[in-house]
Amino acid sequence: MPSVLVIDDELAVRESMRQVLTRTGFEVVTADNGVAGVEAYFEHPTDVVIVDIIMPRSDGIAVIKQIRARYPKARIIAMTGGGNFWPLGYKPNTLVTDAYLTLASQSGADALMKKPFRRQNLIETVRGLVES
Amino acid sequence: MVRPPVPSFQNTLVGRLAILQFAIHLILPPVLYYRLDAVIRRSASETFTHHAHAYATALVHDLELADVLQSPNRTVAFLDAIVQGGGCSYSAIEYRGRLLGSSAAETPSWIRRRGNDETLAESGDGIYALSERFVKAGAEGAIYLGFDTRPTLNQVREARYQIIVALIVYALASVAAAVIFARLVSRPLTQLQKASRRVAMGDPAEHLGADSTMVEIVNLAKDLEFMRGELVGTSARLRAEMSERENEQAQREVLENHLRHEQRLATVGTFAGGLAHEFNNILLPMLLFSEQALDDIPHDHPARNNVESILDAALRASSVVSKLLAFSRPHEKHQMEPIDPAAVVAEALGLFSALIPANIELLSDVSASGGRVLGDPTLLNQVVLNLISNAVFAMRETGGTLSISLTPGEQSLPEPSGTRLSPIVELRVKDNGKGMTRDTLERIFEPFFTTREVGEGTGLGLSVVHGIVKSMGGSISVSSEIDAGTEFVIVLPTIDVPPLPPE
Predict the structure, then answer these.
(1) Are B284 and A81 inside 8 Å of each other by CB?
(2) In the predicted structure, residue B121 carries a pLDDT above the cut 70
(3) Which residues, including other chains, have CB under 8 Å from residue B381's CB and lie 6 or more apart?
(4) Nearest to B431 by CA among B358, B366, B484
(5) Which of A54, A93, A118 minimises the CB distance to B330?
(6) Model ipTM?
(7) Which of A4, A104, B21, B51 could be cross-linked to B175 through a Cys-Cys bond (beta carbons 3.0 to 4.6 Å apart)?
């Protein structure tokens, strides 16, 4: 059974994705921050990692870089709700959705998803990566 | 402070001189007259008496007493000769206290008085009498002579009359000369004064000159003219400076307003960006959970409809958020490509023309050679569609004309070394619909600001337009008048790239 690690700081996001992916036939592990996510992956590398870019403590970009550094063949999906996330130290008007995703892609993400996405979109993206 | 004189005749230069002359000639000629009259009278009198005495002295000197006393006839002949030859009117001779004879039948009383009046008498019978005593042959005698003073007095009177006439003529001539002179002075002064007033009233072309040959007046005119030149120059400079300052002030106000507005929009944009992030994170589980739930709920279950509604609402919300994000990314520069705005506008018009109601007339003036701009064609399309749909909305009840124009132009950009002209295209979208109030205009680009009924719009359209135009380095402005219509003007900088080769 292919496994997926979901790293997001929002419980509802994690749980909804867990439900969708579990029902589709994936084994789902979750982490609520970047640091915990990287630790979890290093302990049990999953087939796919889905990571939110904007998170408190070690953000998605750092997670992607760390995982990619140790596991060059890891399959990583980056996702973001976009927007200017100034409360967390991002300067206003500097990075927005597409820029985040570009950054994630440059950092080594294999696929990108804009929040909110549909269930079908999620399933196809994960399947696509698993089968590659 | 000196009180200005009342403008009456006695306060004018002519009036003053005339009055002065009149006063002088009221006193001077009578005084002159009396002095001259006295001199003439004295001189006439002296001459007269001198002649009379000289005649008398000569008579006595030449007197041949024996011959005269020879007979009474000789005496009478002697006396007649005196009267005829000496210009006197009467003569008598006395010897040894006895009157020997007289040229008149009656002896005048003054002989009896032995009158020797030395002055010229005007009164009485007009006779000037004198006696010349002599001593001949050892005895005393006297010759009495009476001169008629009337011819001399007439001469004096004649002279006096001439003096009076001369003095009157002199006085009149003096007054007239004074008036003429005063007018010679005052006319050029009045000319100067009137010209000065015209200059003061704002006729800078008025030349200050005076028709005069008087050095003082010519100099005054010259200096006044110089002063006028300075004044006109100074006032023109002042006026120019003032209008320049007003312009600067107005420009600064416009700029300040613009900055304030932009700042507020930027703040709102930043906030909207953060909000969008939050919403997307909330919407994702809503979408996923409702989709999951729809799998679980049997087809005939009443909850199914509700969950479908939740899914729809979440999808609508996500489309609102994506618009919000478009507004909050004004500085995003990627995905830019050179695009032909004319083609984009034409495409938008093509899309929209079928949707424009029959009561709205579409006028488009899109010039193809407007150069190209850097941007995302989809976004620019969105801008045009947004503005068109707003215009149509504003005229949906009244109908009207929707004009769209796209014209090339230039705008001046501030640079360290002055300003630089830079090429632009200008997109104008104008309707004659119901227009907007000032308050609405102020807030029109703010996200979620709308005057429409619930369900007719999100209030995001124009904020998105604003964001897109900003991201293309352009500017958008709007002017509106209630019941007259609204005009949006978008200025986009064009870029210098060769046109695409035809495909």
Answers:
(1) yes
(2) no
(3) B344, B347, B348
(4) B484
(5) A93
(6) 0.86
(7) B21
